[in-house]
Amino acid sequence: MINMEDILTKATIEGVRIYALTTTNLVREVAKRHGCSHLASAALGRAMNGALLMAATMKDNERISLRFKGDGPIGEIVADAEGNKVRGYVENPDVFLPLKNGKLDVGGAVGAGNIIVTRYLQNAEPFTGYCELDDGEIASDLTKYLYVSEQTPSSVALGVLVDKEGEVTAAGGYFIQAMPGCADEVLEKLEDNVNRTPYVTQLLELGYSGEKIIKLLARDLDLDVKESIPVEFQCRCSRERILAAMGGLDKKALEEIAQDEVTEAHCQFCNTTYSFSQEEIKKLAESK
To answer: Which burial class, exposed, middle or buried, applies to 169 when counting CB atoms under 10 A from its CB (0-12, 13-18, 19+)?
Structure first.
């Protein structure tokens, strides 16, 4: 098992932003929280990696949400990232399909449908874009979305390795995006480098860090590594936040809920269930 820290590295290459990350520990944690099958672990891990990489392009820790809505057996996949924090879930964590060409069939699990991307901007309305899924493999779907919906030519590579026992042994990916005015010869050189670079899962299996992956992709180009920051799984839910949300209900609805001795609320993102006593709900109703 590869033991690496969960780190996101940001760099630029002559008019191109290039980010890479390793997320083995956080993907392993989320897969265990949700009781994911091998296939669900790979799909959810890829989606969360993609969300973190796209969140890294946004200002002031603005939030981004990715939803993969296909007609395959895994159902909806949701990943939500804000700065260096990410959370996510799949609708059917027990999904199973036979291997395809010796690999986990994420595309078959997702099926045909749409990717929906919402950017939550500061001091502005959220921006939502969508396009048809490319092949359900997550990375190629994000590459297509960025080109079709946001007109930003990009290359996204995502990988999650799962052993026979279902343990996540490596996870990560990289993101390359041309900025306005980037020279054609730089893009051609980068494209050639990408084509000559092993699959991201192979690099992760060899223990490559995000910075090492970037240096491999940027060979023979003028590379400027900006920063490396830790990334982590973190849900935004809390007992207090859910109780406050319940306080937004009207008095009649709260009085109906208060008839139960215990009221439970479940967070899909972290698979945590919160319990509230009859007295707590009655107090909310009385405060109306």
So the answer is: middle
| Cα–Cα distance for residue pair 109/120, rounded to 1 Å | 28
pTM (whole model) above 0.90: yes
Q: Of the candidates 157, 146, 156, 220, which has an alpha carbon nearest to the alpha carbon of residue 188?
A: 220
Kindly report, residue by residue over 19-67, the tens digit of the pLDDT. 999 999 999 999 999 999 999 999 999 999 999 999 999 988 899 999 9
The reported pLDDT for the residue numbered 268 is 95
For 101, counting Cβ atoms within 10 Å of its Cβ (0-12 exposed, 13-18 middle, 19+ buried), the class is: exposed
Q: Rounded to 5 degrees, what are φ and ψ at 261?
A: -65, -40
| Other Cβ atoms within 10 Å of 258 Cβ, number | 20
Phi-psi bin for 160: left (phi > 0), alpha (psi -120 to 50), beta? beta
For the chain, what is the total number of helices (H) and then of strands (E)? 10, 13
Which alpha helices (H) appear in the chain, and where do they start and end? 24-33, 38-55, 106-110, 139-148, 184-195, 200-205, 210-217, 239-246, 251-257, 278-286
Question: What's the CA dihedral at 37, 41, 42, 44 to 10 degrees?
Answer: 130
- Residue whose C-alpha is closest to residue 16's, from 168, 172, 145, 184: 184
Q: What are the phi and psi torsion angles at 115 (to 5°)?
A: -105, 135
By CB atoms closer than 10 A (0-12, 13-18, 19+), residue 186 is: middle
